[in-house]
Amino acid sequence: MPDSANANANNSDAYFAEAREFERQLLAKGTPVRTSRNQQTAGGPITEWEKDNVPHHQTVTTDSSNYSKLAQQYLEQGRCQEAEKLFVLALELAEKSTFTHNAEEIERNLEELAWFYCNRNKFVEAEPIVKRLVEIRARYRRPEDSLLVRSIDQLANIFEHTGKGAQAESLYRFLISLQEEALGTEHLALVFSFKRLAECYVKAQDFASAEPVLLRALTIEEIHYGAYAVEISSTLQDLAMVYQAENRFDLAAFVMTRQLRIMEEIHGPEGLSVASALLKLADLYTRMDRADDGEPFYRRTLNIYEKVYGKNTATVSSLAKKLDELYPQPQQIYRPEPSRVNFSKTIPDITPVRRQSAISAS
Question: Is the pTM of the predicted complex or chain greater than 0.85?
């Protein structure tokens, strides 16, 4: 056996020994990991599950579920260290069980212990637990089984949190190979695996590897849903993000225009989701130094926002200010119109008056 395996075995034995010591302390205190309803007063506190599900005269059998339920009770009380030991005891008891459903019980206890560690960001402790869970489920579950896929996804997430991104990628490639062999190359179960593998590549800034993987996922979705179905919208968004990261803006604009059409088909031309797609496309054109192409998309977004939120709102004001900065209107010089004067009233009549001569007057 390798030294690392010996070390893991020794650590596991020590951990189980610590948990068993905790069990002896519980029983010494009268804590009813195994008890009857008639003894709950004398035996100490009893779990809520036992109160609700065990008759007064019935004895609670010693199995892993009782340790798990008691561990959940301890978690509710904030007693995390004691709960951890009980989860470990439940797993040990399930491994020693001789019942026919032993494998499923081991799965359940492994999953509970992994959940306990992952929720507390104890990924180093969770890794060997989830590895065992993946090995068990890969042995007898089909590649599309949700439990197997969930366990592989959980293990890949642990790898990502512990700086093992390459191992996460390998794990998804392993799942894809299993699914393609068992289900073919166009099964819908592959979409999730492809998209999660693409996420690993994106996190590693390997956009060139992410693109063909997303295109594979998109092709499968188009086969099953159609070219303009809502189900492909998120894949189009991921693909547009990859194209932008690669500075391939024309392809990004093409993909985002297709996504806009899907949103318009679903929500109508004035839906908020449509406004979001319009704004992203307008911002992309601005980034491409094609502000004139982006302006009508900004204007449509502003009209939708005004109808939904009202004109005197922060959202509308912010976008209107952005439009004024991008597309300033030419200032018009104010020139007052010349006043219209009625000269007939203001200028005196200077027509000479004809005076009669004295001769004619006489």
Answer: no
- Three-class secondary structure assignment of 75-97: HHCCCHHHHHHHHHHHHHHHHHC
Of 41, 19, 21, 38, which Cα lies nearest the Cα of 30? Answer: 41
The torsion angle over the Cα atoms of residues 176, 181, 183 and 184, rounded to 10 degrees, is 90
- The most confident of 19-33, 35-49, 280-294, by mean pLDDT: 280-294
CB 120 within 8 A of CB 80: yes
Rounded Cα–Cα distance for residues 332 and 349 (Å): 42
The CA distance from 89 to 95, in Å, is 10
The per-residue pLDDT for range 293-328, each reduced to its tens digit, is 999 999 999 999 999 999 889 999 999 998 888 888
Mean pLDDT of 108-113: 92
Tell me phi and psi for residue 348, to 5 degrees.
-70, 155
| CA 44 to each of CA 29, 221, 272, 323: distance values in angstroms, whole numbers, following the listed order | 7, 57, 58, 70
H helical segments located in 268-290: 272-287
Q: Measure the CA–CA gap between 84 and 100, rounded to whole angstroms.
A: 26
β-partners of residue 36 are: 59
Distance CA 90, CA 214 (A): 42
User: Does residue 255 contact residue 280 with C-beta atoms inside 8 Å?
Assistant: no
Integer Rg of the chain from CA: 38
Residues 29-62 have pLDDT tens digits of 444 444 333 433 333 344 444 455 444 444 444 4
b/e 213-228 (16+ beta carbons within 10 angstroms → b): bbebbbebbeeeeeee
**pLDDT tens track for 141-171:** 999 999 999 999 999 999 999 999 999 999 9
Q: What is the structure's pLDDT at 75?
A: 87
How far apart CA 256 and CA 280 sit, in angstroms, is: 8
